Amino acid sequence: MSTTVVSTRTMYHQLLSPSRRKKHHKECIPVNVPPFGLSRSCTSTLLQQISDSIHCCQQLLPSLLIQHILYSASAEQISSIVDSEFPNVAATSSNQFYLDSKLHIKELGDAARILSAANSIQIKITSRLKNHDALPSDDVALVSLGNLKTLYKCIIKKKLELENSQWTAFDEHPEQTEAKLRALMAQACSDIFQGKFSHVKYSNFRTLGVGRWLDDEVVNYFVEKWCSNAGTTLGLNSFFASRHLFKPGTCIPKDGYLTEDDQARVKAWCCKAVERLRLKNWDSVFIPINENRLHWYSAHINFRLKRINIYDSLRDRCIENRERPPLLRKNASLMLMLLWLTETLSSIRGEQIELQDKLGSGWVCDPHFKPNSYDCGVHMLWHLRHILEFHRIALGRKCHPSHLKFTDDMVGKRLRLAQEMFEDAGLV
After folding, report:
1. What domains can be seen in the chain, in order of their start residue?
2. Is 0.70 surpassed by the pTM of this model?
């Protein structure tokens, strides 16, 4: 018997133990709810939702029998059913592979959205069962919910496997990927983007196209979305650095210590960002930097690892800085500003850090560079992906899964970003 069945039945018997005082719903009447049988009016709607979920899953997974959900089924059995309906296929550059993968990923996504309600249904139905004596249909309902939650996990896992395979194909076949990106951009028009995003307009979205310089609003969209979802990194928008770290109208970092007014403005800005991203326990800060609308790079403050890094993809800077001591490298002056910023933000986190006069305090400050001068905007967003996934930049074999690797041609990442915005806009 599966672990799911044992745990749900154990929970059910504890729920209905004789020692617990019941508060009956006097208004409830007996109701027959197929396929569960005799139930009550207070739970009939929830049982119907379970039945509808099962029916939708059977449309997607024809080999999934009603018995697999209503009665005992192991996680291995449910996983094998999903695998049989959506077998893994080796990544290729063919258009058929792309179309099949796209369809299967969408179907799995639709199923996941339906099944995601199982947990909330379980909470509601468990609460209502406390008011009644046990019926056989109650046991069946709880077992079904446990199996639906297992099915949800299997579907999410399979969706990720198919996405990884597709993303790998994007990186391995850049010419075909470029054609797909051009085709996607040709589908987009101003009308369909109208009102879909609060700040991103059609003209902003177009900068994800082949060979385009990435727009501020696109960068800010992904920084806010990814950091909000992750919940661990305070992602500041691209306007923060120009207003607080650099001299007005230039890409030259401010000099020396900043005033109390500067500190107050930074705190106010960052507190609003924490609130907007709905962060509770954040341990790092990501700062995208737009240099004269010609080049993107980023800075990262990691409070947990005690590191301050500047990530730059410009090849000439990388070669130039290898031969210089750290304090004479390009962006070393920006590092001094980041030391001050770290001290300022530490107070928001409820701690006190002093760095500018105590560089031996265990913190590592590294204004380093990665030699890749292509697609600096997309490259910079991939800095953030790595930070959220690995808490650092992972290169070569250290980067797993492989679809997160930096590539010489970032067109595959461009296509993924464009597809993500299409999906978020409900256009897929």
Report:
1. 3-172 (no CATH), 194-424 (3.40.395.10)
2. yes
